[in-house]
Amino acid sequence: MRIFFRLAVISCCFILFCLQANSQDQTKTRDKYTLLTMAYNQRPLLLYKGQLQLNASYRFAARTKSFDSDGNMISLKDKGSASMIHTWIYELKYGITDFIELGIDSYWMKNGIRSESASILSGSNIITTNRLDEFKGSGDLTISAALRFPFEYKFFDFMVKGGLTLPVAEYKPRQPAHTITDYSSPENFTVNYMFNNRNGTGVAYANLSAAGKITFSRISLEARGLYRFPAGESESIRWSWTRYGSTFTYYNSPCSLLPDRSLTVNGSVHYQAAGWLDLFLGTYYYKTSDGWTEFSGLKYANPEIMLTTLEPGFELQIAPSLTIYQYAGFQLAGRNSDAPFYLLTTLSFNMFPFWK
Question: What's this model's pTM, rounded to 2 decimal places?
């Protein structure tokens, strides 16, 4: 409790200092067009006072490979379980001052994971099983506040951000929709297992992050770190069923789990090729730990996930109020993790709605 109290006092003092420093209103000496068209190598890490930014992103991922517990690459195509992931991300940010920023974001994702078909042979009898795990729906809502150094950006900047992810999305799995096909006899048929999962977590998360940026003429270096941890356990349900002929009867029972903590560290090198074009090459490291899942009253630790990714991309400003971000993700190494190749495209709309 003492640590949290001290952090709260320090944060309040920092905010008051920012407000006092910002009372000089540096934006009065600059026009709106200049601020909206500021190149990346001249821009601070946070928005300017009164700036409103809406980011709409689409992430397309091809889930064709994964890493096992020893870090070996596995081809999901060979196992018949490759899939596509479609994610839409929404983010709204507003600059309270040149040094304080508020934000809110969420997402919607769809992913269907089809497992390799299996057959049970007994004499002339054949029972084939297929499995599809579908993840579909909205994610939880994150609200955040960020603070940066209270002086105008020259060549170095630093910011800290704190946030809370609220468990507003549906998270308990829907009833499965298993079917029987190719039914020729009680000993010859195909079972299609379909599990309907949601993307919510059912528990609040605390998010702590920091970022630093340093610029040398056209070259900028940026580093970021994010640590997320759940507020507690989550209560969910687990589905079971019985089958009679081609009819399934479903039952659910309560279960509990503790979502993983996660750490993300990433760095990037930027080259300002033109005032409207920024080229960058980034990499990030992702790791989870300390989560568990309950099965039959026993708690089993979740396997720790590790993933290292390379991300080349660019920022292209096509109008004062519209910027496009595009980057690709290539998985370099990992453990207990999928390794999808992905493309993420972001349209960023910027404006000063209350500019006088």
Answer: 0.86
